[in-house]
Prior knowledge:
- By secondary structure, the protein is of the alpha+beta class.
- It has 3 domains: about 1-35 and about 240-339, no CATH class; about 35-85, Roll (Membrane-bound Lytic Murein Transglycosylase D, Chain A); about 90-235, L,D-transpeptidase catalytic domain-like.
- About 35% of the residues lie in helices and about 25% in strands.
- Strands 7-6-5-16-9-12-13-15 form an 8-stranded mixed β-sheet.
- Helix 1 runs antiparallel to helix 8.
Amino acid sequence: MLLFTVMRILICLVSVLFMMIFAVFGAHANILIGGEDIYTVEKGDTIELIASKLGVEKKTLLKDNQLDPKTRLQPGMKLKVNTRKIVPKLISDGIIINIPDRMLYFFKDGALDSYYPLCLGMPITQPGLGKIEWKTPEGRFKVTGKEKDPVWRVPKSVQLEMELKNKPVEEMVPPGKGNPLGRYAIRTSMPAFLIHETIWPTSIYRYSSHGCARMLPKHMESFYPKVKRNIEGEIIYMPVKIALIDNKRVFLEVHRDIYKKIKNFDEEAIKEIERSGLKDMIDWEKVKKAIAEKKGIAEDVTDEEKIKIALKGQSILEQSILEKMSSYIRTLFTQENKK
Length: 339
């Protein structure tokens, strides 16, 4: 009976400890992917294609390598790249798509299995199409089916676009080289939202689709076999991500509010950081710079002195709770032995 009581108390106290630490450091995935690297230019590469392959902004590639936009790349050239990102959310199994960072994160057996850059829905519908929107929707979904060599049944809105551009209006496109769905399509419970291969590789890491998620052919070849029917997913909108890495470095990643969903972006970004529980560990000048530039890269915004103080406080808090747990358990055993 005593052992059972002690176990219950231990579970409660440990839960309190984790809740207190959670309150201090916030609800973050706290996982980084990618990083600084050197990319060797391959035959046929352009700045646009490299940006699509790696999931980085074209302008950042140009700036980091001091290249003119008109520069012709030669095979063998070395380019500095930074693909560092913060995983926005952790789940046990399934798919997370974050619209502002144009990335798909695939989880399996409680861990991040793989991640891929995407092309998502364009923010502005073309003139003449009225209230039609092609923004990628937010929300939860399930995978309802998979198709190899799919037929593209052209939506009415896209048929109208074809007509406005004086192109032949097609209702159905058979499998083949001209099919925008490529060789693989994953259908979902969201109306008209597919995850599919693309025949336009340089569209990846841009917002130029009619709402679907496009993926590079080599990435879809890897992703398609992993996805099973009824697997769950979620599309989120998180332009500001912050993470505490290895309990000693704070990283901040800021993207554009591409769909103009946030009234005062800079103010909301500051509030998001303050809500994170990490505001006392960061260099605010670095934070303001990251918010202004919106590079879409996870940047180190740690304040060395502040984080030492914060982590020391965390250590004292944990030690205090552990000491109280130990004292309480000793008291229970003493009382039991006197009976």
